[in-house]
Specification:
2 copies of one chain form a homodimer. By secondary structure, chain A is an alpha+beta fold. Chain A contains 5 helices and 5 strands. In chain A, α1 packs across α2, α1 packs across α3 and α2 packs across α3. Chain A binds a DNA duplex through α1 and α3.
DNA sequence: GAAATAATGATAACGGTTATCATTTAAGGA
DNA sequence: TCCTTAAATGATAACCGTTATCATTATTTC
């Protein structure tokens, strides 16, 4: 059975305290300041467990790039800036969310499949990078 | 400058001859039958080059799972079955495609970002797996 | 407390991909 | 056609994020 551990609590708190989408290693660095003895494997293990139990989100990235984690489990889209690589949240209102899901389910119906979830990452240029370009 | 190579031609042809979404290794296996001397690194190198020049698509998968490649560059969505892991294409008509893109661009506007591309993977149960379940 | 057994920490192993480097080969003249 | 040059190749080592292993520690239950 699942058993309480100080480490898991620290990991969940550390993730919720961040407003970005940290990697396992970033969280490990944060937590090391409080509990220097923690091992990186424990961070990975607990993030996996928290993800499987639905307490956090995981943004799977491509090979060789670390996965990102998200303490905010309200459904939302992600936007990744192609210039600075930052990942931002896009929260939709319920109406927008339902409408999008309905449309995607229809698309799945085209091939007679049942959609359960979708993974959407928008890519382009974030506000900061756009503003930076203008100032050059 | 870019220079012709028999290997690159074989790789592109091998990919186009498949209707699924093979991994680099699957293509390597196919091509080895014709050119046994080819090296796996050459396959990876050329797939990367073909992707960068827009001649093929790449479906980036999660860590520890091989990337998939697609010789069909007409814009389309992907559906991955959570049971059998197969990836299928979903082709939208132009109207559906434009409508979806417009909607996604609006979502990016919420955070003042400019969307260039989107990566959408629908997940759920494919037709085959659904039919299989019914027959049990 | 004591026993049972999850969870941990250190580190080796893993898997897909990329880098390295000597060798081969295509391209463009002489 | 031969020569030069530099891109492409093939073999393999290295890389990097992640997972497995295993002895040790710590939480739960009695």
């Amino acid at each position: 059975m699942e058993r309480y551990s100080k480490q898991r609590e620290l990991i969940l708190t550390a993730l919720r305290n961040r407003k970005d989408h940290p990697t396992a290693e970033m969280l490990y660095n944060d937590i090391s300041k409080i509990m220097p003895s923690i091992g990186i494997a424990t961070v990975y293990r607990n993030l996996a467990a928290l993800y499987e139990s639905g307490q956090i989100l995981k943004i799977e990235t491509k090979q060789g790039e670390s996965d990102r984690f998200d303490g905010n489990i309200k459904p939302h889209l992600h936007f990744q800036c192609l210039e600075c690589n930052k990942i931002e949240d896009i929260f939709l209102n319920e109406e927008q969310n339902n409408q999008l899901n309905e449309q995607l389910k229809e698309f799945a119906n085209i091939i007679d499949a049942e959609m359960a979830t979708s993974k959407i990452v928008l890519k382009g240029r974030c506000k900061d990078c756009r503003d930076k370009k203008i100032n050059l």
